[in-house]
Amino acid sequence: MYDNTVIRFLDRICKEKGDNVAISTCDTDTTYTEYRKSARAIGTYLIRIIQEINTPVVVYIPKSELALEAYMGVLYSGNYYCPVPYGSPIERARQMLSTLEYTYLVTTREEVDTVLKWAGGINDEKIILLEDINQEIIDDGLIEKVLTKVIDCDPAYLLFTSGSTNVPKGVVVPHRAIMDRIGWMMNEFSITSKNVLANQAPFHFDASMPDIFLNIMTGARMVIVPDAVFSFVPELLAYLQEKDVNTLIWVPSALVNLTYKDAVKKHILEKLSLIIFCGEVMHNKYLNILREAYPQVAFVNMYGPTEAAYACTYYVVDRLFEDSEPLPIGKPCGNTDIILLNERGQKVAGYNENGEICVRGSSVALGYYKNRASKAFSFDEYNDVYYNEMYHTGDIGYWNELGELMYVGRCDGQIKHMGYRIELGEIENAVLSLSRIGHACVLYDSDKDKIVLFYDSDDDMCDRKYILGGLQDLIPKYMHPRIMCKMNRLPFNLNGKIDRKKLNESVRKGIYEE
């Protein structure tokens, strides 16, 4: 068997460890054999319905073993999956479907009414219900015939991120990118079938990628943690202990939650040996609490965008840091090259000089869906003798004297908040769509890790409750402003534009009123 696509690893792990538990939830355990059987039945069904390969298939299913089986089923059909975030606001879901021009969609009978509300003109024939798929229809010959046509540079999944034009962008990630990054992680951190991963991130978020694919490439057991458990830290830690979890690959904000009221010190996870965090800045104030509670655990800070298959740099925390010190994002992951470009587009040669972080390597995505003109992906800029590809992250960093990459921040209006990449303009656009809003400006207080909304209105009913209610169907909850400052009138500059510089100064000094 030639492992040129990620789905081949599920076949391989089934031969070696078919009876092992692949996915564990609060009340069910799914073996690798059961996982593969369900996925192959879905794959067979999709092949007969879609009759083409390398096309996006939308999946709308709550985070569960069913969602994972659907994703793998899409891969067995020779296509690539696109998860729509569960509970997505109607307008955002419509934008995603509009970008894809609506292909096929896999869901359950329980969710079909939600799907039908999304976009006008949905063809019911393109909605595929898992309940309609017979587990006994597997046609291994048909699947093998299709998979011989799929190669490693074909897409495996498409994830939507917040776009600068206020429309979600679809990042297309190929099989080779996943195999490259996961293969390196397996070797670098000695991840095997003995690892028990506690999944934290939603499956539509790239932070879940290591959980999903380390699972099928190593035989590591994945424990799906119920969302409700996360709201009560002692219960969460008890659940992780019960499930024998020894590996956490989480976003920093989720790990920070464990430090509240010293919960992490009161409820020790006896088998914990590895914690990897990525997706946003980890502050040493909280990392030091975790390190004190778990001196035997290896802590790894990873950095990278969705466009580089989860991460492109890493730092194994190997020394003490003061609470106020920044944490390095380290050095390039295996088979990855990091280039810093200054404002003139020249390579940064020395230490302590800021530059935009750019990534080269097999883990780089294929680009944005139906947007080949994006300047974020460039070719042949620094090599005039052969074809070259590089992704411009829009993040600023510098090399310190130890040769470690340090993260500075964004070079535009995009932020990382709660592990999500967010365009402030997308929030602003949603706020301005509310009828009672006059003017609005959305900024980010990095010190308090909060999204701040400045707005004015002549309507007394335009308050926090009204705004949050209006945003409910427009943008996800993690994008909702935490601080809302109502003003008589927003400040304007001489050009007649909102004086963002003045408002930013208020945020920087923390002198705004909530």
Question: What this model shows, in words?
Answer:
The chain is built from 15 helices and 26 strands. By secondary structure, the protein is of the alpha/beta class. The strands form 6 sheets. It has a 9-stranded mixed beta sheet. α8 links the parallel β9 and β10. α2 packs across α3. The protein starts with 6 loop residues before the first helix and ends in a 5-residue tail after the last helix.
Q: Care to give the gist of this entry?
A:
With 514 residues, the protein is α/β, with parallel strands linked by helices. The protein is 29% helix and 24% strand.
Task: List the topology elements.
Layout: H1 7-17, E1 21-24, E2 29-31, H2 32-50, E3 56-59, H3 65-76, E4 80-83, H4 90-100, E5 104-107, H5 112-118, E6 127-129, H6 140-147, E7 155-161, E8 169-174, H7 175-188, E9 196-199, H8 209-218, E10 221-224, H9 233-242, E11 247-250, H10 252-257, H11 263-266, E12 274-277, H12 284-293, E13 298-303, E14 313-316, E15 331-332, E16 336-341, E17 355-361, E18 367-368, E19 377-379, E20 389-399, E21 405-410, E22 414-417, E23 420-423, H13 424-432, E24 439-445, E25 450-456, H14 464-471, E26 483-487, H15 500-509
Radius of gyration: 23 Å
Strand content: 15-25%
Principal-axes geometry comes out as globular
Can you count the helices?
Answer: 15
Unreliably modeled segments: none
Q: Which features would summarize this protein structure in a list?
A:
single chain; 514 residues; alpha/beta; five-stranded antiparallel β-sheet; 15 helices; 26 strands
